Amino acid sequence: MKARDMNRDWIATARTLSEALPYLQRYTGAIVVIKLGGHAMGSDEAMETFARDVVLMRQVGVNPVIVHGGGPMINQMLEKLAIKSEFVNGKRVTDAATMEVVEMVLSGQVNKRIVAAINGQGGRAVGLSGKDAQLITCTPSHPDLGLVGEPTEIDPTILHTLFSAGMIPVIAPLGAGHEGETYNINGDTAAGAIAAALKADRLLLLTDIDGVRDAEGRVVTELSAEQIRQMTRDGIIAGGMIPKTETALAAIDGGVRAVVILDGRAPNATLLELFTEHGAGSLIRGNNTPRVPRSGQS
Fold first, then answer.
1. Which residue in the list 123, 130, 192, 244 is annotated as catalytic?
2. Which candidate in 53, 130, 149, 188 is catalytic?
């Protein structure tokens, strides 16, 4: 590369950092819950990029919380162990044998991979599940689903303790019942419940799609809760997008300022959403919430 080209790149980098300042100031001290879907974890390189972004967020004063899924990894292990897995309305039927695999994969393999990636980039991540420190208490979601839980109580005390120590919580979506049972929780549902309990500034749902699309197939960059409901009634929002938008609406009703659905496979997706003017994906806000600026302004 010629010196002139290198100088041009450095100038562009400096300009980008300067333009990011208002957004960095905007999110200082904010809590941002990030749901990292199994399909969005990708390669080791993608995980490294995600981890670096999370460490940068913490370095500039944001309090990130990672809630992860792991469906593809669970499927692989169940197949390897010849355990049949069934789904009802998109949710995994979880019997005792399946629950053992789910907990092993989520709390072990997946959780520790994310923790190691963040620590490898200089962060201080701590892995836990919703069973730890009574973080998530559940009741059964539906009799047909077995050990699938619905969060009924969230105690975020341990998360605030970790924030105070400068640490990054990485949470596997498992919960405990009132009798000590272990429950499998949908990752989006767990992330939404935790975000609401923390009154998070943002809930970022990192998935394998780039946002909510309108009838013409274009990504809508910002929507109100009522627009989401109308698009669902009209059949524009359908299939796998319905549970994600339902999670978004529940989180907003619970006190989250805004929810963003975005493509977690895109490099630096979280930084683009938080620290650039146009953001990334689809931002969803409450009906009575003033327009949520995707800028450094409040």
1. 244
2. 188
Please state, in angstroms and rounded to a whole number, the distance separating the CA atoms of residues 68 and 71.
10
71 is catalytic: yes
User: Is residue 244 annotated as a catalytic residue, yes or no?
Assistant: yes
Quick check: 207 and 169 in contact, CB under 8 A? no
> Hey, what domains does the chain have and what are their CATH numbers?
30-285 (3.40.1160.10)
Residue 128 CB coordination number (10 Å):
19
Q: Report the DSSP pairing between strands 31-36 and 91-92.
A: unpaired
The yes-or-no answer on residue 38 being catalytic is yes
What's the predicted TM-score (pTM) here? 0.88
How far apart, in whole angstroms, are the C-alpha atoms of residue 68 and residue 222? 24
214 is catalytic: no
Task: Give yes or no: 279 in active site.
Answer: no
Active-site residue, from 37, 38, 130, 149: 38
Q: Which of 69, 71, 192, 281 is catalytic?
A: 71
**Pick the catalytic residue: 35, 127, 130, 187?**
35
pLDDT per residue of the chain (298 residues) written in tens, 0 to 9: 555 554 556 556 556 666 766 666 777 889 999 999 877 677 888 899 999 999 999 999 999 999 999 888 999 999 999 998 888 776 788 999 999 999 999 999 999 999 999 999 999 999 999 999 999 999 999 899 999 999 999 999 999 999 999 999 999 999 999 998 999 999 999 999 999 999 999 999 998 888 999 999 899 999 999 999 999 999 999 888 888 999 999 999 999 999 999 988 888 888 888 877 777 889 998 866 655 555 444 4
Give 98's strand partners: none
